[in-house]
């Protein structure tokens, strides 16, 4: 197996991050943001960013998504470093168009478009001790997926037992609006690309190996990613 899980819990999202902000168990937002809030919330000055992306454009692509099963609110783009806004960038790669490349060192996820370009998304990634690298593929996909806490987590946090049969999809579900499950050799690796509703987390290390994109970005990537798509995770 290419993935190095590090310990029995690697590959699962941070335990406290696995509860919704209103689930009544843990304050997910305060834990996830933590010390990252001070460095992750950068204001935007003027009407355009330094690389020409306008505030109006950012507000458009990260605006509300009212037609979803669970309507998604707009992202407060002032809480996201402008370098993590979705955009088309130059990206020389030998990978086939459609391939997903995860760059945890720089907090980016790329979708290879071909002709030397890619769509780039900002991301949050695994924290120290939970980073991994290697090749995988999308084994299955989920819209508003159910989240089931691992048995190890239930042992440590008995209150999680109420979700032993699965936490229904919704805005409070840690996996958010969409999920891409990574597989190797026919087996689920326990690693997932998921939708995050907390903008302050983009550009930070906070999970146990999973990779989170803003909900609007994850919906965009999900819609263009079929099952069996190759995923390359670069070394951190």
UniProtKB/TrEMBL annotation:
Domain of life: Bacteria
Pathway: Cell wall biogenesis; peptidoglycan biosynthesis
Coiled-coil blocks: none
Ranges where the L,D-TPase catalytic domain occurs: 98-234
Key words of the record: Cell shape, Cell wall biogenesis/degradation, Glycosyltransferase, Hydrolase, Lipoprotein, Peptidoglycan synthesis, Transferase
SUPFAM superfamilies reported for this sequence: L,D-transpeptidase catalytic domain-like
Family matches, as InterPro entries: LD-transpeptidase, LD_TPept_cat_dom, TAT_signal, TAT_signal_bac_arc, Transpep_catalytic_dom
Similarity-based family: Belongs to the YkuD family.
NCBIfam families: TAT_signal_seq
Protein's name in the database: Lipoprotein-anchoring transpeptidase ErfK/SrfK
């Amino acid at each position: 197996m290419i993935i190095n899980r590090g310990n029995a819990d690697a590959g699962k999202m941070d335990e406290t991050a696995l509860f919704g902000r209103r689930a009544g168990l843990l304050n997910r937002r305060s834990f996830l943001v933590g010390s990252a809030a001070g460095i992750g919330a950068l204001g935007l000055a003027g009407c355009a960013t330094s690389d020409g992306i306008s505030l109006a454009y950012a507000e458009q692509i990260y605006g509300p998504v009212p037609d979803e099963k669970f309507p998604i609110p707009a992202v407060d783009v002032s809480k996201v470093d402008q370098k993590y806004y979705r955009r088309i960038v130059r990206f020389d790669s030998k990978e086939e168009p459609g391939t997903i490349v995860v760059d945890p060192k720089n907090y980016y996820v790329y979708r290879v478009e071909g002709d030397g370009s890619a769509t780039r998304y900002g991301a949050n990634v695994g924290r120290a001790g939970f980073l991994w690298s290697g090749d995988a593929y999308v084994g299955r996909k989920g819209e508003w997926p159910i989240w089931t806490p691992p048995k190890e987590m239930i042992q440590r946090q008995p209150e999680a037992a109420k979700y032993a049969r699965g936490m229904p999809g919704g805005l409070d579900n840690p996996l958010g609006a969409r999920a891409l499950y990574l597989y190797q050799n026919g087996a689920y690796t326990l690693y997932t690309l998921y939708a995050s509703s907390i903008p302050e987390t983009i550009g930070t290390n906070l999970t146990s190996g999973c990779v989170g994109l803003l909900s609007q970005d994850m919906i965009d990537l999900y819609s263009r990613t079929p099952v069996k798509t190759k995923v390359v995770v670069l070394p951190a």
